[in-house]
Design a protein that fits this description.
The chain is an alpha/beta fold. Helices cover 28% and strands 27% of the residues. The structure holds NADP nicotinamide-adenine-dinucleotide phosphate.
Length: 314
C-alpha cells in the first residue's frame, strides 16, 4: 500500500512517500480503503520534535484519523460491514496510508447525506469542539472568545457557541476574518494587531487553542465567574496562567479535554449527525495528495491554512 513515512524528526521534508505491506485484518478488525486522511496541528509538532501523545519507534507512518470504505473484515466481525462508509481513529499512528486495519469497534459510520471528506474533517475536531463546549458550557447571552477561530477546532467552536446562544468574538490572523464572520461570529478580531484585546472583551468564556501571549491577553478579558479552557499551544507555548491567578480572579481554569474511547466515538458520531442535519459546517480549507503530506505540514506551520487540512488518498 501507499504510505508516508516519518523516518526522523525534522522539517516537513522528513515526510517521505513510500510503500508498506498491505495490512491484513486480524480477529476483531476491519480493513478500510482510505479515501481521506486528516492532519491535526499536533502532528506537525510531533513530526518536528517528537512532542505529543503519539508513540512508536521511527520509522513510522504518522496520522491518526481516516475515512473510507470497509473492504474486508477479520474473524468475529460482521461481514455486513463490508461496503460501508466509515471514519476511524487509527490508534495514534498509521493514518497517512491508503489502507488501515483497525478494531471494528473503532469505526464510526458516516451518515447518509454526509460526504466522506466532510466526515473526516469532523472526525477529531468535531469531538474536541463538542468536549470543549460541554466543559465551558456557555449559555445564552454569554460572551465567548474563540482563539484561532478560523482553524480546525476554532471554526466548529464558533458555530457551536453561536448555536448555544452566545455572543462570539472570533480571534484569528489577517485574511481569515471574513470566514470567521461567515461562520457566525458576531465580532471577528485580528489578534495579530497590537491592542486587539481592547476591542475583544470583556468575555465570560475563553477557548484557548493558541497559548502563549494570546492566552495571557485573553485571560485578562475574563470577568468573575468566567471559564477558560486551554486545550492547545499552536503558538508553541502553553498558557502560563496559573490556578492561583484564576482563583484570585474568580475564573475557572480547565486544561485539556478528553474522555474514554467510547465517549469520543459517540461525540464523533454526534458531530457527523449534526453536520448531516445541516447544523454544523465542516470547513475544509485545503486538500493535498497523500504524497504531498510534506507540503500540507509546511502550509499548516506557515499559518497559511484555514479550517481543516486533508490528505486525498484515493
Ligand atoms: N483534544 C485536545 O486537547 C485537542 C484536540 C485538537 C487540537 N488541539 C490543539 O488545539 C490547537 C488547535 O488545533 P487545530 O488542529 O484546530 O489547529 P488549527 O487551529 O487549524 O491551526 C493552528 C492555528 O493556530 C493559529 N496560530 C497562532 N499562533 C500560531 C503560530 N505561532 N504558529 C502557527 N499557528 C499559529 C493559526 O491561526 P491564525 O493564523 O488565525 O492565528 C493556525 O492556523 C493545537 O494546539 C492542537 O494541538 C487539542
Amino acid at each position: 500500500m501507499r504510505v508516508v513515512w516519518l523516518t526522523r524528526f525534522g522539517d516537513p521534508s522528513v515526510l517521505t512517500p513510500g510503500e508498506a505491506p498491505d495490512p491484513v485484518p486480524g480477529p476483531g478488525q476491519a480493513l478500510v480503503e482510505v479515501a481521506f486522511a486528516n492532519i491535526t496541528f499536533i502532528e506537525t509538532m510531533f513530526r518536528a520534535t517528537g512532542f505529543g501523545p503519539f508513540q512508536g519507534a521511527l520509522p513510522m507512518v504518522p496520522g491518526n484519523g481516516v475515512g473510507g470504505v470497509v473492504t474486508a473484515v477479520g474473524a468475529g466481525v460482521d461481514p455486513a460491514l463490508v461496503g460501508t462508509r466509515v471514519v476511524t481513529s487509527t490508534g495514534g499512528s498509521g493514518g497517512y496510508a491508503s489502507q488501515v486495519a483497525v478494531d471494528a469497534t473503532a469505526l464510526v459510520p458516516v451518515p447518509d447525506g454526509l460526504g466522506l471528506a466532510d466526515a473526516v474533517a469532523l472526525l477529531a475536531d468535531g469531538r474536541t469542539a463538542l468536549l470543549l463546549l460541554r466543559a465551558a458550557a456557555p449559555g445564552p447571552g454569554e460572551r465567548v472568545l474563540v482563539e484561532a477561530a478560523a482553524g480546525g477546532v476554532g471554526t466548529l467552536l464558533v458555530q457551536l457557541a453561536k448555536a448555544a446562544g452566545a455572543t462570539v468574538v472570533g480571534a484569528a490572523g489577517p485574511g481569515k476574518l471574513d470566514l470567521v464572520r461567515d461562520l457566525g461570529a458576531d465580532r471577528p478580531v485580528d489578534y495579530t494587531v497590537a491592542g486587539w484585546a481592547a476591542t475583544a472583551g470583556p468575555v465570560d468564556v475563553v477557548f484557548d487553542g493558541v497559548g502563549g501571549a494570546v492566552a495571557r491577553q485573553a485571560f485578562d478579558l475574563l470577568e468573575r465567574g468566567g471559564r477558560m479552557v486551554s486545550y492547545g499551544l499552536s503558538s508553541g507555548a502553553w498558557s502560563d496562567v496559573t490556578d492561583d491567578e484564576a482563583a484570585a480572579r474568580g475564573v475557572t481554569l480547565l486544561r485539556g479535554v478528553t474522555g474514554p474511547p467510547e465517549e469520543l466515538r459517540a461525540l464523533t458520531a454526534e458531530a457527523l449527525a449534526r453536520a448531516a442535519a445541516g447544523e454544523l459546517r465542516p470547513v475544509i480549507g485545503q486538500r493535498f495528495p497523500l504524497e504531498a503530506a510534506a507540503d500540507a505540514h509546511a502550509a499548516i506551520e506557515a499559518r497559511s491554512t484555514v479550517g481543516k487540512t486533508l490528505l486525498v488518498v484515493a
